[in-house]
Amino acid sequence: MGDGRRDGPQELNESSERIGAFPAHTAVEVGQFSDDGQWWWDGTTWIATSQIVLPQLPVTEFEKSGRLKGARTFMRRASRLGPWNPSINVALVFLFPWLAALRDYRSWKLEQVALATAYLVGPHETMLAGETSLSDSQTTSPVTRDLAVAVTAAHILVFDIDSLDGQPRSVVLAGRPTDVKVERRSLVFGLYPALWISRGNVQWRIRGMPSVFRPGPVLEAWRQAATGMASNKP
Hints:
Elements: E1 5-6, E2 32-34, E3 39-41, E4 46-48, H1 61-64, H2 67-79, H3 88-121, E5 129-132, H4 136-139, E6 146-151, E7 156-161, E8 168-175, E9 181-185, E10 194-199, E11 202-207, H5 216-231
Parallel strand pairs: 1-2
Antiparallel strand pairs: 2-3, 3-4, 5-6, 6-7, 7-8, 9-10, 10-11
Helix pairs in contact: 2-3
């Protein structure tokens, strides 16, 4: 099936030889999700999507460039002030470097999300757009994690990221664009922007920071993917 989907395990015999995005993928037809998104074919067996554990991702080009090192150094220094400092002067001094560090982290995370997407669906189905939250893992409790979304022509994938300096580690949603709704919401003046992704009665929120968050490409890619998939239905 050209859109990268399979109906389920009964389709295994139709698989053809193809190498996936990572060297570990040496079996046939890597990167297939069932139509309901509940199962993923890893090349040898069907795995429940909720049980997927992504392997250690390769070092990204952004990380190789050395730019992430400065952002990490700043975040470590800023963390010593605690999650909140009452001094407005301190807040202003740190605001612009903090936003710059978040932009660098965002660039790195999106490269990781693209790699994770390729691992799951193969190189034939590239990530068209993506976005990630960065605030949750650094400003709230240690059990709170960030989320990231990837849009391809055939899938909407939402990843759980294990930490600010970690990587996408699991998949909390795998759905077809026609089965998923993506919305942008914010308060007045654009404060607290977020992408809300829903399937049925379940929702996931990807929060962003003004001047760092860019939900537009995700919304546009989702609309185009949903329109294209709907028009291809018999």
